Amino acid sequence: MAWVYLFIAGVLEVVWAFYMKQSEGFTRLGPSAITLVAMIASFALLSYAMRSLPLGTAYTIWTGIGAVGAFVVGIVFLGEQVSAMRIAAAVLIVSGLVLMKLSSAH
């Protein structure tokens, strides 16, 4: 279950990052509320995952899911720049996540 919690926590990290951008500096109530709720849920699920997963593994994968997820959401929904170098960077992050998972004893 720890890996499921960790994955959901990572997805929620993408959600709160997206809605933080939409909140325009916490000046819009709806996106601000979604940001805070998703943040709390993400941290709670990360803490549950860390009960059985090593800190280095859990935190690295959580931030990696958030980073790559925010990168994809930025491109797809916010029209952010796509370049070969940015895509290569995302591929390297995902490769690191896969290696981290494969090297974990859990």
TrEMBL record:
GO biological process: xenobiotic detoxification by transmembrane export across the plasma membrane
Annotated compartments: Cell membrane
Pfam families: Multi_Drug_Res
Keyword Transmembrane helix: yes
Major localization class: membrane
MF term (GO), any: transmembrane transporter activity
InterPro entries named in the record: EmrE-like (IPR037185), Small_drug/metabolite_transptr (IPR000390), Small_multidrug_res (IPR045324)
GO CC entries: plasma membrane
Record membrane topology: Multi-pass membrane protein
SUPFAM superfamilies with a match to the protein in the record: Multidrug resistance efflux transporter EmrE (SSF103481)
Stated family: Belongs to the drug/metabolite transporter (DMT) superfamily. Small multidrug resistance (SMR) (TC 2.A.7.1) family. Gdx/SugE subfamily.
Protein name: Guanidinium exporter
